[in-house]
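Chapter summary example.
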Amino acid sequence: MGVTGPCGPCTEIHIDHVPGRQFAAAKVNMGCSDLTEIWNLVFIQYNRSEDGQLKELPCRHVDTGMGLERLVAILQGKRSNYDTDLFQPLFKAIHKFSRNVPVYQGQFDEEDTMGFDTGYRILADHARMMTVALADGMFPDQNYKLRRVMRKAMLVSQQKFGVECGLLTELTNYVADSLGDAYPEIVHRLKQIQLIVNHEEEVLRLLRLGAAVDWQEIVSVKPELSNLDIVEMPGLIAGYHELRAYARSASVNESLVARKSTVPSAAIRFEEKCIEKKIKENTELFENSIGSASVMIPGKLTFKLYDTYGLEEDVIIELARVEGFQVDVNGFRHLLNAAKVQSKESFRSEAENEQMQQIFHQLIKLGLNFTEDTQKYYYKKENDKYVFPPVKCKVKAIIVSGKIVSRIGPGTQCSVVLDQTNFYHEAGGQASDSGQLVMKDGTQFHVTDVTNYGGYLLHHGSVNKEGNDICVGDIATAEVNGDDRLGNMRNHTATHLLNAALRKIITVTYQKSSHVTESSLVFDFSVYGETFYVQNVEQLEEMVQRCVHAATPVKRYTVSADELFSLENVTLVPGEVYPEEKIYIIEVEADGLFTSREACCGTHVLNTADIRDFCIVGMKNAGSGTRSLVAVTGDYATSALQEGQQIAEKVTSLHAEVEYFLSSNVSAHEAEQLDMKLQKLKQKLAIGSHTLPFLVSSEELQKIEIIGKKLKDSARGCLRDELETEMLAVLANNQQSFLVHFLQCSSMIDSVPLQKATRMCPQIPVLLVAHSEGSVKAKCCVPKTLLSETFNAQLWMQPVLQVFKSEGAAPRGQDPCLVFNMKGKKLQPADFNTLMKDALQSATKFAELHLGPAKTQEQS
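The structure predicted for these 860 residues follows.
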């Protein structure tokens, strides 16, 4: 099956499509289109190690595979799969919807000179494959190979059949007709399949528009690369540039090394500079030099081009060939095989580190059975309260610091393996239970969490300090923390309802992940071909709340794998591997709303009414087309909804207060006080602490923005009067031959018109500082008659810039000696008073030094 691993002898059955031909066996596996293999049986009995040795396997089996289409061709008397009734309807559809192309001729290899028949086969094959894959729940953004297959089909549709878009979507109808009886999910999900195909065509179109220009520039210089399609390989441009960058550096090093044996060291350094200069100034000359150089692209870089940029080996070799380089293919393949092995080992190390493997084997050697945990589902409701019956169990093993021991003392941190338990271990996105194991003598082992290791459930925790030793063989009572378990159950069931409601309002969506704890749930999902808006959050919340209030039973039952795939509208997690038997199904049929039916091993409430309340408290983007919702249930939801109501009332009250002030000729100071209230409330809404309903936060934030805008507009309206009043008062009291002043009225507005203020004092040098929305800025003007070598606007602003650690510049087209501005600089509130005082003092001292001290009373 591969270079290493399970293998064995095989027997094959081939069919010769040429009647009466002799010696056909000589052509077996030689790539002849008229000699077809229909069956292959491999007798797996060895394991091939890396050194090539074959070792007998303890268990043997037969790996058999037969081609359905090939068998159909034989039964229908056809020479090729493509001549059967499985493909002919697709070919007719392609011809019908294409533009001026010949009908399918059944030509192969050199006979198909124009490539049309090859195009027919690619398009039909790919249409079948991707339709079935999409019906099975695969998504292009999660499976790169599926996306490549779809893009290949789209390109063939455009290049061979002249159809820019829509042909692949049309073919899904014919695939549904052909395979719908065997795969009914294709018919049920045809609308979703077609939406995904249309979306991928649009993504491809935009990608080609964006990348085509850059790639065409490369192809214009290297026309040999025109056979490579940028659309099939989004990382092609970046990978190509990295390959050339390496070749450049390698060529430079090679040139320098060649000179070191004959050139003095000083000359070498001079030569290095010359080469660097040539690289920068004369690309064409440089490329001619590396084109003739024998540059080897190492395996490490080749693997990076493959792994990071998605370039296949043949593409990398082609890029290197065009550039005149060679590729270390053997080094690349060695790294590729090593990466595959490492990937398996790293996956294993996350769940099965070496220490735990040893423990696992020791537990097996001790003859311990796996932990029986079905009693985690044995709970009931009595007198409107959930009851989680305790379970009598026996301590089978104790693990301390990676070692199996027979006894532990008080306060010891360890893991305990039981023969049976009612604790839920972390799985399916649901957090594990917590609780305690109570020994016969009253000693308690506090369980913080539980993990599953190969069937053994490890109860992690510690013995209470007041207790006695715990020994292997002790009898205990396992008691689950009922409040935490109920919180987990509420949030897990709510996650299912949220998923079902989402599928009801969005045409194509799928769950990417979920995380359930006793206090909240996080649900990540992707949306195809649509945009998920705030209004959708409102729909989801309302639908789930209606289902909760409808008091709908939550059913749990088990099915086999065969029964699972025969169920209608069952939600499966893409990529999840399900067991052959005993698959748990959680089902909620909410009349008039939706049906939730999911394969799930988690624990759930018995009735949706037990969720009590539901509230979405957060939403964020988690990538392209992906959203993450945070929601709460039970008391958490009730508390969030109540706090949301209080916030809404505060915003309404503040709105009324603002309207009253606006109608009463509000002053800048009063407006500032109101704005501070608004900002404080806005900050609370924007914290994102998940204590408020998301809809309330969004809606009230919008209201605050509107109120704040009204307030600022009003402040701007009266600013001219406030500014004029303040400046006149300052000028009247000014005892100096210059003016340095902080504008008090600036704190209320977002755009301070400093130019209007400086115009009010054209005869004297003026430096004004303003502070608005956490940012400080300044402007200074100096009359032309007062300019000197030591005093001008730019020099005067320097001490202010130093205090605020900011930058400055003159307005465009103006003399910096006459006018100079400080760019806005954000300040921390705690630093404001100190920095402002220092800036004003520094500016005043500079002016006094160059313009003289303050006027006397008589002079004024």
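To summarize the output: The two ends are 102 Å apart (CA to CA).
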